[in-house]
Amino acid sequence: LLILDEINLAVSIGLISLKDVLEILDNVPKPTTVILTGRNAPRELIERADLVTEMREIKHPWRMGVQARRGIEY
């Protein structure tokens, strides 16, 4: 199992290139399960994926004035 947490966001803001992520994915040994997380997933990653899930906020403490919490939001 390989989890690339918030990799989609990292690509969308230019911290890592899509080309580099695709290269990582091409070199993961079979039958490793790879999980990519984060918003703004590039079309190329969505097309390559076996499963795509989109989450949406319904209620969040931040909207009630609670500051970001270490270990939860960051």
Structure characterization notes:
- It contains three helices and two strands; from the N terminus they run βααβα.
- The radius of gyration is 15 Å and the shape is elongated.
- The two termini are 22 Å apart.
- A two-stranded parallel ribbon has the order 1-2.
- The model has no long low-confidence stretch (mean pLDDT 95).
- Helices cover 28% and strands 8% of the residues.
- The longest helix has 9 residues, at 18-26.
- The protein has helices spanning 7-12, 18-26, 43-48, and strands at residues 2-4, 34-36.
Describe the secondary-structure layout.
Elements: E1 2-4, H1 7-12, H2 18-26, E2 34-36, H3 43-48
Parallel strand pairs: 1-2
Uncertain spans: none
Given the C-alpha coordinates, what overall shape results? Answer: elongated
Order of helices and strands: EHHEH
Strand order of the largest sheet: 1-2
* Count of helix runs: 3
Total strands: 2
Q: Structural class of the secondary elements?
A: alpha+beta
Count of folded domains: 1
CA-CA gap between termini: 22 Å
User: Which percent range fits the helix content?
Assistant: 25-40%
Classify the beta-strand content into a percent band: 5-15%
Mean pLDDT: 95
Largest sheet: 2 strands, parallel
Supply Rg: 15 Å
Descriptors:
alpha+beta; 74 residues; 8% strand; single chain; 28% helix
Short description:
This protein is of the alpha+beta class and 74 residues long. It has helices at 7-12, 18-26, 43-48; strands spanning 2-4, 34-36.
